[in-house]
Amino acid sequence: MVITVISFKGGVGKSTVSQNLAVSLAHQGKDVCIIDADENESSNIWYSFRPEELPSVPVFHVTNRTDMSKTINTLSERFDIVIIDCPPAVKDTTSRAVAKSDFSLIPITPTGGSDVWATEKFLEHISLLRDRLDAPLPCYFVVNRYEPNVTMHKAYLNALGDYMEKYQVDWMNTILHKRSAYGEANANGMGVLEYENPKAKKEIKDLTKEVMAIVELAV
Ligand SMILES: Nc1ncnc2c1ncn2[C@@H]1O[C@H](COP(=O)(O)OP(=O)(O)OP(=O)(O)O)[C@@H](O)[C@H]1O
Ligand SMILES: [Mg+2]
User: Fold this and answer.
1) According to the model, what pLDDT value does residue 180 have?
2) What domains sit in the chain, N to C, each tagged with a CATH number?
């Protein structure tokens, strides 16, 4: 099973979602790894801080298109679940990752107009890729850094609803809220499941349940 975490936008939580999902699945006894496809090596560096006593979540750094295909083939034989943490750009490497994935997660931060525009541009790219490959390439939004008291955030969720129909994208019911635990866990090589914030833990557990439901439907 291969899951790509991708978006046009930087800083929306691709690495955060990849790492937390991987940690959560590892705690459920899954053999899980991350392919870090970003030059910035966020997940690769995160892994170097991971305490040894915690469940292993190996990270492989791959930024080249040919290596990406080979690595996905090899790792998907070896691991139950491979999560690909993508850079904030659409290139051959990331298109290859999406094409070889069972589904993609698209983290979205509802913070302003540029998020809307970047999301639409990205979804247009996915549409082209679907046509070119004649493949469904299922995609799911994951709303991240959500702040219920910010009016703009609600308006943004409505805009996403329009995209769902236009671009055939689904979304995860679990919303990840803005919480400092995400940054703190990351800085310690952990997921929030291994950190002391019950609300963050719960939302990652809920997201994992939803992801596993899709995984089980696909196998
Ligand atoms: N739900 C959240 N609440 C608070 N902080 C968050 C949340 N999600 C992510 N962050 C923080 O936002 C920053 C960007 O997140 P992250 O690195 O996961 O984004 P990214 O999409 O991978 O970025 P890039 O495009 O640069 O790779 C990080 O400092 C991270 O700790
Ligand atoms: Mg990242």
Assistant:
1) 97
2) 2-218 (3.40.50.300)
Q: Which atom of ligand 1 is nearest to the CA of 38?
A: 27
Atom of ligand 1 nearest to the CA of 40: 27
Average pLDDT of the residues in 69-76: 96
In this structure, which residue's CA is closest to atom 31 in ligand 1? Answer: 183
As to burial, measured by CB atoms within 10 angstroms (0-12 exposed, 13-18 middle, 19+ buried), residue 168 is: middle
Ligand 1 mutation pick, 45, 141, 182, 203, max ligand atoms within 8 A of CB = 182
| Tokens standing for residue 107 | 């983290």
Q: Smallest Cα–Cα separation from 174: which of 13, 33, 51?
A: 13
What are the tens digits of pLDDT across the range 104-120?
999 998 877 677 777 88
This prediction's pTM: 0.96
